[in-house]
């Protein structure tokens, strides 16, 4: 009878087994979702206790407890765990957390590697920083042109690597081992980008030199965002007036931020509060300048009120001194000049930090900065004087620059005559401050972006082919072919590329970027008709412009590996960072 009804002991056991499989699958699905949610928000999973319904058992168990209030599956699971009293597996401990994090990050890496292999060509982006446990962490990011639906530039974070030393040999060995671990061929690397550290960009024994020796196709491109920051640093150090100006900004911030009562006085007068600027976060310079450039009168009124209300004599004296400085014509001119220069550089800097920034667009941005600085050097100081005069009028102060008494110094005999002292105070400010700062920015931009122009010129034929003659087109295509070839193989054929560009159809726009041209070929289904152009465009777009993606991972590193979690294992750290950056 039991056989006829299918109610044998075997069938009953199989039914119970299937029920348990479904139950555990549903439990693990919820645990995976909790881990994914916590990792995306950079929250600590564990606490000081690993027991349910304890005050300090961490976010993971607290999420489990919260879910059990509304979800029958988790409610039943916790009831079983409490009845078993630790005698049966419950999958709520630290071991299963690490296993789930490793499994989830492994699946993400699998998808990333598949995407990279389908794109074929990739570029390496590296940057290093010490973590809270004083280990040097190297962030590894790979840039590709993804070909899933539409061509898209992507930068994939593949993990943190512990560097024992900062030498070029150690860092280059680490990234090569990481590529080999994921079965990625370094021969397919077409670009490398780092910050401006000498151990990274050096031409002899550093990372880019060692990788170029292994693969001459891995073109080195310096980080554009770092370079713009160094441009601002060079300009700030070029003039004593520039250094003293930023010193006054720092003093104003420190004076108001030292006490809540002082900050309340500032907020009563100014809509935009003064900001602190730091040596490493160069964006803070433009933010700190903007507050004084657009509301100098309000900040001066706040300083005067602070002077009147302060009971400490030192605070009164400092507030009076800073109020006089903010109200000076020289300070107003410096505010206008620095705001104009930093605004132009800041705009390009923010655009260059985009993950999909292209080399041709970056060079165009730099050319615009150079043209702006050339024009600004001619007309900028006169315009700054007019604007500064309006600022002084709003503060009811005199818009004049007083000449300081010339200090008499003993002059020794020399064959070269000494420079004549400036009798006009404004002319002296123009020469010693304005021209010095503008010329420092111009020379830094021209010097530091030589590499950008050199690499861009190698691929310029891909954008300018419509305006070239047949002989010029053939010569530039052959040059590009030699650039992308070694003794063994070549990525493209120069002769065939010239033929493809000669017979290319009419473009929808006369001014197209590399990514728009690649998208045009893809949407028109021309990839098989123009294979050499298709390949050359993908390689050009693979070249990185900035290491901003690697630096963004550092902010996640500091949120994940904190002072209270300084002993976190490297595998768990890298896994959580991958889940956060996916």
Q: What secondary-structure arrangement, pairings included, does this model have?
A:
Elements: H1 2-5, H2 9-40, H3 58-68, H4 72-84, H5 94-119, E1 122-130, E2 136-146, E3 152-163, H6 168-181, E4 189-193, H7 198-201, H8 207-214, E5 219-220, H9 224-237, H10 240-257, H11 260-269, H12 283-294, H13 296-309, H14 313-326, H15 329-352, H16 359-394, H17 425-448, H18 450-458, H19 461-464, H20 470-483, H21 494-502, H22 514-523, H23 531-542, H24 548-560, H25 570-581
Parallel strand pairs: 1-4, 4-5
Antiparallel strand pairs: 1-2, 2-3
Helix pairs in contact: 2-3, 3-4, 5-25, 6-8, 9-15, 9-17, 10-14, 11-13, 12-15, 13-14, 15-16, 15-17, 16-17, 16-18, 20-21, 22-23, 24-25
Structural class: alpha/beta
Structurally, the number of domains stands at 4
What portion of the residues fall into strands of 2 or more residues?
5-15%
Mean pLDDT: 83
**What overall form do the CA principal axes indicate?**
flat
CA-atom Rg in angstroms: 31 Å
The major pleated sheet works out as:
5 strands, mixed
Can you walk through the features of this model?
- The protein is of the alpha/beta class.
- The protein has four domains: 2-92, no CATH class; 107-223 and 547-581, ATPase, nucleotide binding domain (Nucleotidyltransferase, domain 5, 2-Layer Sandwich), CATH 3.30.420.40; 231-450, no CATH class; 459-542, no CATH class.
- The chain contains 25 helices and five strands.
- It has helices at 2-5, 9-40, 58-68, 72-84, 94-119, 168-181, 198-201, 207-214, 224-237, 240-257, 260-269, 283-294, 296-309, 313-326, 329-352, 359-394, 425-448, 450-458, 461-464, 470-483, 494-502, 514-523, 531-542, 548-560, 570-581; strands at 122-130, 136-146, 152-163, 189-193, 219-220.
- Helix 5 (94-119) crosses helix 25, helix 9 runs antiparallel to helix 17 (425-448) and helix 12 (283-294) crosses helix 15 (329-352).
- 36% of the residues are buried.
- The model has no long low-confidence stretch (mean pLDDT 83).
């Amino acid at each position: 009878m039991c056989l006829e009804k299918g109610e044998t002991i075997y069938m009953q056991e199989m039914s119970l087994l299937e029920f348990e499989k479904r139950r555990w699958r549903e439990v693990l699905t919820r645990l995976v979702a909790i881990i994914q949610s916590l990792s995306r928000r950079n929250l600590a999973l564990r606490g000081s206790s690993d027991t349910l319904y304890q005050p300090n058992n961490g976010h993971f168990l607290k999420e489990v407890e919260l879910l059990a209030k509304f979800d029958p599956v988790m409610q039943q699971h916790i009831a079983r765990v409490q009845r078993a009293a630790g005698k049966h597996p419950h999958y709520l401990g630290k071991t299963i957390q690490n296993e789930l994090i490793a499994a989830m990050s492994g699946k993400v890496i699998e998808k990333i590697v598949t995407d990279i292999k389908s794109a074929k060509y990739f570029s390496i982006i590296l940057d290093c920083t010490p973590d809270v446990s004083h280990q040097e962490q190297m962030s590894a990011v790979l840039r590709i042109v993804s070909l899933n639906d539409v061509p898209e530039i992507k930068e994939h974070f593949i993990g943190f690597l512990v560097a024992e030393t900062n030498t070029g040999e150690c860092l280059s060995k680490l990234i090569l081992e990481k590529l080999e671990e994921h079965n990625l061929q370094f021969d397919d690397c077409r670009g490398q980008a780092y910050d401006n550290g000498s151990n990274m960009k050096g031409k002899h024994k550093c990372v880019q030199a060692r990788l170029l020796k292994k693969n001459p196709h891995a073109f080195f491109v310096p980080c554009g965002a770092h370079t713009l920051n160094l441009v601002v640093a060079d300009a700030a150090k070029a003039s004593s007036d520039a250094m003293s100006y930023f010193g006054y900004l720092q003093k104003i911030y420190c004076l108001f931020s030292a006490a809540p009562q002082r900050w309340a006085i500032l907020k009563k007068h100014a809509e935009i509060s003064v900001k602190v600027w730091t040596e490493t976060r160069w964006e803070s310079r433009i933010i700190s300048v903007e507050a004084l450039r657009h509301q100098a009168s309000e900040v001066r009124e706040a300083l005067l009120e602070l002077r009147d209300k302060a009971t400490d004599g030192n605070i009164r004296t400092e507030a009076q001194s800073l109020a006089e400085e903010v109200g000076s014509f020289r300070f107003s001119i410096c505010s206008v000049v620095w705001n104009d220069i930093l605004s132009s550089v800041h705009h390009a800097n923010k655009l260059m930090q985009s993950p999909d920034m292209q080399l041709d667009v970056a060079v165009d941005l730099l050319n615009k900065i150079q043209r702006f600085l050339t024009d600004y050097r001619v007309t900028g100081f006169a315009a700054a004087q007019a604007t500064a005069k309006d600022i002084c009028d709003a503060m009811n102060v005199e818009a004049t620059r007083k000449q300081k008494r010339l200090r008499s110094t003993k002059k020794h005999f020399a064959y070269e005559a000494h420079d004549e002292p400036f009798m006009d105070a404004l002319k002296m400010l123009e020469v010693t401050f304005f021209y010095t700062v503008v010329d420092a920015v111009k020379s830094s931009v021209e010097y530091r972006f030589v590499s950008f122009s050199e690499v861009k010129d190698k691929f310029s034929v891909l954008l300018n082919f419509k305006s070239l003659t047949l002989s010029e087109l053939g010569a530039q295509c052959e040059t590009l072919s030699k650039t992308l070839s070694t003794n063994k193989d070549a990525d493209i054929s120069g002769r065939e590329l010239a033929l493809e560009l000669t017979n290319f159809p009419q473009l929808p726009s006369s001014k197209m970027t590399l990514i728009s041209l690649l998208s045009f070929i893809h949407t028109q289904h021309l990839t098989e008709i123009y294979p050499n152009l298709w390949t050359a465009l993908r390689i050009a777009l693979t070249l990185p412009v900035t290491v901003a993606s690697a630096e963004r991972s550092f902010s996640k590193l500091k949120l994940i590996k904190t002072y209270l979690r300084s002993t976190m294992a490297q595998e768990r750290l890298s896994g959580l960072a991958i889940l956060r950056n996916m």
